[in-house]
Amino acid sequence: MTEEEDQSAAHWVAYRPVQVAGRLAVGGLLLAGLAWLVRGVWEVRLAVAGEPGDGPPDQGNGVHRPLNSLEDSYHWVTSAGAGLALVCALLFLSWLWRLRDNARALSGDAPKYLGFWVYLGWVLPVFNLWVPRGIVVDAFRGSAPGRRLPGSVDVWWALWLLGTFGGVGVVYRDSTDEIIGRAYGEVWPLLVCDAAVVGAAVAGALAVRAVTAVQVERIRGARAQEAEVGAV
Questions:
Q1: Do residues 94 and 25 lie in contact, with contact meaning Cβ atoms separated by under 8 Å?
Q2: Which of 40, 67, 200, 226 is deepest in the core (most CB within 10 A)?
Q3: Domain ranges of the chain
Q4: 26 with 94: CB under 8 angstroms?
Q5: Whole-angstrom Cα distance, residue 172 to residue 188?
Q6: Is 45 helix (H, G, I), strand (E, B) or coil?
Q7: How far apart, in Å, are the Cα atoms of 132 and each of 97, 122, 146?
Q8: Which own/partner contact pairs does 223-229 have at CB distance under 8 Å and 24+ positions apart?
Q9: pLDDT tens-digit profile of 170-182?
Q10: Mean pLDDT for all residues in the chain
């Protein structure tokens, strides 16, 4: 390899494909949002049907009565929703890794958050209040310094926090039978959290599209510059 070829190769940077990953993440978010919308519909159905005469499914002290058909279908709905949420999480994390790596290649700076935060940032108490949003913001600023952060990022994160920590969102402590009992007693808090999760899914899809588009634009510009340098 000649000296000129060495210099040309030094200017070429390998960027990770992010556009398809972004589309998959958008699809996963919208499917998860749809799952929570269906879940809300089933909770309304439970509230309208009213609590059976033999009480809620979870009768305390580890005693559970047999489920009726509506309650049993709600279990299926929540299980399907949990499955779609898992798929959504995997697709989102795949996109986030690529976004973060490309931002590092574009800026030449180390990411603000180390790699393990891409996973642990979602589950560690207290840190999960800001770290995941911080990773997205850091990657955006590394990709497009000086550009304004899309408003959908903040909307997504605010709704995500409300839906997650509202008691019955993506992460909740109550069992499905206990949630059914709450739907019979007072359904509105459940629906508020469901609405927040659905809104977070839609806003998250918009945020992924916006952030991905900015990074793809920057990568194309960087590659054009690299091609010009290589042609010299």
A1: yes
A2: 200
A3: 16-231
A4: no
A5: 16
A6: helix
A7: 12, 6, 21
A8: 223/15, 226/11, 226/12, 226/13, 229/8, 229/11
A9: 555 678 998 999 9
A10: 88
